[in-house]
Amino acid sequence: MHNAAFNALGLNWRYVAFEVDPKNLRTAIEGARAMNFVGLNLTVPHKLLAVDMVDELDESSKIFGAVNTIKFEKAKGKVRAIGFTTDAEGIKISLREDLELKLRGASVLLLGAGGAGRTAALKLAMEKVSELFLVNRTQGKAEELAREIKKRFPSVKISTSYPGTKVDLILNATSLGLRPGDALPLDLKRFSFSQTRTVYDMIYRPAETLLLAVARRAGCKTANGLGMLLHQGAKAFKIWTGKTPPVGIMRAALERNIYGH
Ligand code: ATR
Ligand 1 within 6 A of 115 CB? Predict the structure, then answer.
C-alpha cells in the first residue's frame, strides 16, 4: 500500500520489509538512522521493545506504550528518532467507516486481552464507550487490563464477563480465526448474535473468519480488519511524508496483494 501511495504521489521512495531478530532491533533502528531512512514501521514483538529505543515518544506512543511507526527527523546536524503508534486510530476510523459505528456511548464486547486487545480496550475507553465487556481465555489477563482501564478511565463501566443485555459491537482481538478449523472466539452458550448489531474482526486474512460468517448469517453487519490495517498505514504515511495519504489507492493495493483482486 505504501509503494502504491509513493507512486501515486510521484515520490521516489520505497517501502521494504526486513525480518529482524528482536535481539538486533536496536542495531537495526540505528542502521536505518545511519542510512538516512525516512522512517520505519514495526510489528510484533518489536512494538513494545522499541519504546526504549527512540529519542522521543509522541503522545500516541506514550498513551499506548507501543511504537509501530518511527520517523527520523534531522535537526541541528543530528537525526532524532520519534516513535508513534497509529494502530488505535486505525481501529477507530475503520469502525466508523466500515460499520458506521460511533464509539462514544457505545457498549462493546471485546474478545482478547493480548497486545491487540489492550490497544483496542484503551482506545475504546479513550473514545468514551459507555460500557466495556472484556472476555479473554486467560481470565487473569482480562482482569489486569480491566484494572488498568479503571485507573486511567474511571468513567467507563468495565467488566470481565459476558454481557447479559444487548451490545452495539463485538470486537475480536484474539488470534482465533487465523487458522482454518479455529473455534469461534466467543462462547455461544453465554452470548448470542441476536444480542448485537455489528461484529468486527481484526483478522483480515482470511477475509471472512468463522466469526464473521456466522454473524453475517445471523443478520449482523460485519467487517474485517483490512480497514484497520489500511488506516494505521495511512496515518504512518502522513507522519513520514507530511502529505495527505491517497487512501483509495492504498486500499486497492492492499486488496490486490492480500486477496488477489
Ligand atoms: P496480539 O498481539 O495479536 O494481540 P497476543 O498478545 O499473543 O497477540 O494475544 C493473542 C490473544 O488471542 C489473547 O487474547 C489470547 O488469549 P490468552 O490471553 O488466553 O492467551 C487469544 N487466543 C489465542 N489463542 C487462543 C485460543 N486457542 N483460544 C482462545 N483465545 C486465544
Answer: yes
